[in-house]
Batch of 2 targets.
Target 1
Amino acid sequence: MTLGKLFFLRLKRNFVSRWLVLGIDIFLVSCSILLAIGVRANFKLERISGYDVYFALPTIVFVYSIAFFIHKSYFGIIRHTSIADIWRILKANTFAVFALTFIVTAADYFNYYYLQYISISFLIIHFLIATFVLVVSRFIFKTAYFELTESKQSLRKNVLVYGAGKLGLLTHHSLTQSGLYKVIGFVDDNRSIKGKSIEGIPVYSSKEVLDSAFLKKKGIVEAIISIQKIKPQRKREIIDQCLALNLSVKTIPPVDQWINGELTAGQIKEVKIEDLLGREAIRLGKGKIRKELEGKVIMITGAAGSIGRELVIQSLYCAGRKLILVDQSETGLFELEHEIIGLMDKVVGAKTDYQIHIADVSNEQAMNEIFSKHSPNIVFHAAAYKHVPLMEQNPREALRCNIKGTKILADLSVKYKIAKFVMVSTDKAVNPTNVMGASKRIAEMYVQSLDMHLKKQGLESTQFITTRFGNVLGSNGSVIPLFKKQISQGGPITVTHPDITRYFMTIPEACQLVMEAGVMGLGGEIFIFDMGESVKIIDLARKMIKLSGLSPDTDIKIEYTGLRDGEKLYEELLNNKETTVPTHHPKIMIAQVRNVDHGMLKAELERAIELNYQLNEFEMVRVMKKLVPEFVSNSSKFELLDNNKDVLYQ
C-alpha cells in the first residue's frame, strides 16, 4: 500500500484537521505570492527584487490568514467540497484583497516606506492566482480521496441516474461521495443536452440506454429516478422498462424529506408499490375536511383496522374535539393508543380528547351505551369482516357483523340525531359473487333506504353516506404484505389465477374519500373513485419480485392455487344497472342505484337477524340472495342456490 493511500485512508476515518487545512491554505497563498511576483516580472529574474518577497510575503499572508479566520473557509470537509465551500473561499479572498488595497493605499498616503513595493496591480494578480489555486486544490484533494479510498470496482454498483437537472446532479454527488456507486450516465430526453456530458458523465436518451447489450457492456445494475415532478404514468413506464431489463429501481425522496436539507445515498428509497399504479394520486380539499371536523365529536368503528387507524390519524390532524374509538381487537386498540400518544403533541397538542371502547358493533346494548354517553356528531363506520374465503365459510358471522352491526349503528344514529353517518363499503358489493360482498351490499341498501325513508317523512335527521372503493394497498390481509412475506421467505408467491385483476388505492386515498364524503354528502349517496386501470395480480407479483432484485420463476417461483371460494376474476365499481353522477371533484362520482322499500327491507333483515343461528347456512345465504338478486355465487358451495332462489327486489 502506497504512502499516499495510507494518508487518504486516514482521512477516511478522521476528517482532516481544520488547522491542517488552514496550514495548507496559507502555504498555497504563499506559493501564489511567489507566482504572482514571477508573473508581474514576466518571469525574468533580473526584474525581481528581494524586497518584493521580503515585504509582500508576510503582509499578504497575515491579512489572508485573518480573512480565512473571519470567513471560516477552512471549516469544510475537503472530500465533501461543494459550491458553498468555494463561495467561502471567494468571500475570504475578496475580503483580503480589499483589506490589502486599503492598507497599501493608506501606507502610500502616509509615506510608509516598507509597503511601497506592494502595488494594487500585484494584489489583483495575486488574488486571481490564489483563488484559482485554493479552489483547484480542493477538487484535487477531493478527487484523490475518491480515487485512493473508494471500494474495489467489483464492489461498487454501476448505476444510471434518470434526470440530468439540478436534482440529478445532486444525486450524482451523493452517490459518488458514498463510495458505493459509480454513475455511468444520466438519462434525459431533453434534446438540448442529449449527447453532452455533465461533470464528465455522459447524458443519454432513454432509447439509448434501455438496451440489454448497452447495460451488459457498461455493467449497469441499477437505475435511480431523480426527477421530482415526474408524472405517475411516466414514472411507471420507466419502472416497467427497467424491470423488463432486470434493472433494480430506486427513487429520490421529496426535497422536504431530506435530512438537514441535504441528500445522502442512504436516503435513496426503494420504489413504492403505489408507484406501480401509474395514475395520479387522488387529492382532496383538506381545508374543507378540517373545517367540517374541527371541534366535533367523531366516532370511528373498526378503529384498529387499516382504514380505521388512518381515519383516527386524519381526525387528529383535523383537530376533532373528541374521538370515540371502537373496535373488538384489544391488541389493535392497545397499539393504536400508543400511536395516538406519540402523535398528540406533534399534531394538535392536548386539544383532542379520545375514548377507547373494546366492543362489538353487533352488541346493541354496548353501542347504545357509547352513543348515549358521547353523543357523537359524525360516525365513520369502518368495522367489517372483509376476507372473502372466511366469510364464505362463516356466512352467519358476515350477517352478524356486516349487516346487523351496520343496522344497529344506523338506527342508533337516527335515535341520537347524529348529523352524518359515513359507511365504508367495497367494490365487492357490486354484482357480488360471495357472501362478504353480498353482506356489504345489503348494508349499503339499508343505510340508503333509511336515508330515503327519513326524507320522505320530512325528518331533519341523520344523513347516511356510503363510500365504495377497491383494494387498499398495505391494508391488513391485502395481497401486498402477503407477497412481501412470501418473497422474504424465498417463495413461492401464490396467485389464485393468471388472469385475476384488481383495482388498488392507497390507505390515505381511501381515508380521504371517506372523509370527503362526510363533507360533500347530503345523504343517500354512494361515492366511488375513478381508480384508473385495474392491475393484473400476476404482473404485480412479477414486479415485486424484480423490485426485490430477484428474478421471477428463477429465484422466486410463482404458483397458481385456483380461485378461492366466492372469488371473482375481476372487480367492478358499478353494476350494469347503475349510472354515475359527477361531483365537483373530477375523480369522485356518485353511483345511482335502484331504490329499495325501507319497510320491507327492514322487516326481512330483522327476521334474518333473529333467525341467524336457527337457520342452517344454506338457508341464511338464500335470504341474502333473495335480498340481492344479482348475488350469484362463484367457486362456492352456495352455487347450488342460484337455480332456485326467491327474489325480493328487481
Target 2
Amino acid sequence: MKASVVITLVTSAIAARQSYESLSKTDATALEHELDKWKALYGPIAQANGLLPPVTVDSARINGHTVEELQRFHDTVQDVQEAALANPDAQFSPFNQFALLTN
C-alpha cells in the first residue's frame, strides 16, 4: 500500500494521538475496511504466530472487529504516517503480521 493512501486514513494532526472512537464516520469506515483487508491478508499469519490481541466474550464489537483491534490498527496507521513523514524516501505500511501488536 502506498504511503499516500495510508496518510488519507487519518485526518488529524500527527502530534496528537487520536483514538479510533474520535474518528469521523467516514474515517472510521475507511479504517474498518482497511482492517478487513489486513485480516484477510495477514490475520491468519498473525494468529498462527500468536500476534493477535486477546479477545474475550465481553469484547465490544463494531462490524465484526473488536474495539481493541480497531484501536491497535489505527495506532499502527498513525505510526506509519509518522514514519513516512520523517523518512520520505522510505516505504512503510501497516500491512504486515505485526500491525496489531501496537497498544
